[in-house]
Amino acid sequence: MNKPIKLSHLRATLQDISYPVERHDAANAFDGVTILLADGDADLGALIRDCVTDEFDDPMDLYYELHNAMPIAALGEPGQSDGDA
């Protein structure tokens, strides 16, 4: 997989491997996959290595863990409100 993927396509991409999966196996599977973030891009395998969970039961486990591992600026404009006025 050399084509960059958008963050909005991350969930679908994470379904490309079998689960349950250990973190290092998932990271190896996605090495070289570039994910396009709000503030640039990152290697998906490297982001998975930054996760703290050792094993993922399904793609959603990995998806949520990745969101916790990404810097806040990677997901959108820092300090943006979701409408609490």
* Number of H- or I-type helical stretches: 5
Lateral arrangement of strands in the main beta sheet? 1-3-4
CA-based shape: globular
Portion in strands: 15-25%
- Please tell me how large the radius of gyration is: 13 Å
Q: Which structural class do the helices and strands define?
A: alpha+beta
**Helix amount:** 25-40%
What count of domains describes the coordinates?
1
Low-pLDDT windows of residues: 81-85
Give the termini distance in whole angstroms.
43 Å
Q: On the 0-100 scale, what is the average pLDDT?
A: 86
Largest sheet: 3 strands, mixed
Pfam families: DUF5789 (PF19102)
Layout of helices and strands:
Blueprint: E1 5-6, H1 10-14, E2 21-22, H2 23-29, E3 34-37, E4 40-43, H3 44-49, E5 55-56, H4 59-69, H5 72-75
InterPro entries: DUF5789 (IPR043899)
Pfam families: DUF5789 (PF19102)
Can you characterise this structure?
It is a single chain. The protein is an alpha+beta fold and 85 residues long. It has one domain (5-75). It is built from five helices and five strands. It has a three-stranded mixed beta sheet with strand order 1-3-4. It has a two-stranded antiparallel sheet with strand order 2-5. Strand 3 and strand 4 form a beta hairpin.
